[in-house]
Amino acid sequence: MDTTGSGHIYLIDDDASIRRALSGTLERLGYTVSVYEAPDDFLKGAVPISPAVVLLDMRMPGKSGVEVQAELIANKWRTPIIFISGESLPAQIVRAMKQGAADFLLKPFSMESLLRAVDSGLAKDAEQHALLLRSLNIQQRYELLTPREKEVCSEIISGRSNKEIAEMSGSAAATIKLHRARVLSKMQAKSLSDLIAMFEGTDLLPPIKSVS
Q: Same structural domain for residues 128 and 178?
């Protein structure tokens, strides 16, 4: 198969032959692989890397794959999980997918299907990581705003004009115009539409005051 990969793979499977076969093939294709025999070894020792995916066996001694998945969710790990399983109960498969599994492959599976799932998961993780960095960057800028500037930011994003905001707060329109300019500057927004786009999907803005 003429393909190369990039990204990290956490492989958790209690079957030594599967660990050797999968890790060897994936590394030859250009991926980096961390191998774990037991779920607890992974949960205690793995360090988050991005982009990455978790290849997780469903049936292992001690903890099932869905139990490991639930612990990762509780610990706020966002790395996509691809389940690999020889035997799984329907309820386990349903639970895994409801908990956000990226894919579910039944053994024996083809290397082509595995690579499709891996590459899709890596792309998803890279996108999630980029969004997280963007959100953190926006939050850092937002924290530079004064409490009043945060209120004005929320109000201008809601569509209110400088005049409307001034009338609501009893401030002069010129004062609101100055706050607006400072908000755009501190947030490094070129325009109102740019500012609005920054806050899409975030919960940073305070509640909008209703007009009495």
A: no
Q: Write phi, then psi, for 57 (nearest 5 degrees).
A: -70, 145
Q: Which domain range does residue 151 map to?
A: 144-199
pLDDT tens figures, 110-136: 999 999 999 999 999 999 898 888 888
Asked whether residue 208 carries a pLDDT value surpassing 70, the answer given is: no
Q: What is the DSSP letter of 125?
A: H
In angstroms, the CA 21 to CA 17 distance is 6
46-89 pLDDT, tens digit each: 988 999 999 999 888 888 899 999 999 998 899 999 999 877 67
Q: Are residues 125 and 163 in the same domain?
A: no
Write phi, then psi, for 6 (nearest 5 degrees).
-145, 135
- Phi and psi (nearest 5°) for 32? -100, 145
What is the reported pTM?
Answer: 0.72
Nearest to 199 by CA among 150, 161, 148: 150
- Catalogue the E-assigned strands of the chain: 8-12, 32-36, 52-57, 81-85, 103-106
In contact, 31 and 6? CB cutoff 8 Å: yes
Q: Write out the E strands in 58-202.
A: 81-85, 103-106
